[in-house]
UniProtKB/TrEMBL annotation:
This is Large ribosomal subunit protein uL29. The keyword Cell cycle does not apply. CDD domains: Ribosomal_L29_HIP (cd00427). It comes from Ottowia thiooxydans. The lineage of its organism: Bacteria, Pseudomonadati, Pseudomonadota, Betaproteobacteria, Burkholderiales. Keywords: Ribonucleoprotein, Ribosomal protein. One of its GO terms (cellular component) is ribosome. Belongs to the universal ribosomal protein uL29 family. It comes from the Bacteria. The keyword Ribonucleoprotein applies.
Length: 65
């Protein structure tokens, strides 16, 4: 998901997105461990997407204070 799309969500929506991304990242890690993952770059992209969403959560929470 692009940063512009994430910026349109509220904090609750971003937290739900982080939760979904963490589940996806876990599934990718399990696929890698069982030698079923073909595209290992997906691990990197999901990890960065989680970080991007968490950064936006922190920005919105600090702006609300």
């Amino acid at each position: 998901m692009k940063t512009a799309e994430l910026r349109q969500k509220d904090v609750a929506g971003l937290q739900a997105e982080v939760k979904d991304l963490q589940k996806a990242h876990f599934n990718l890690r399990m696929q890698k461990a069982t030698q079923q993952l073909n595209n290992t770059s997906q691990l990197r992209s999901t990890r960065r997407a989680i970080a991007r969403a968490k950064t936006l959560i922190a920005e919105k929470q600090s702006a609300a204070k």
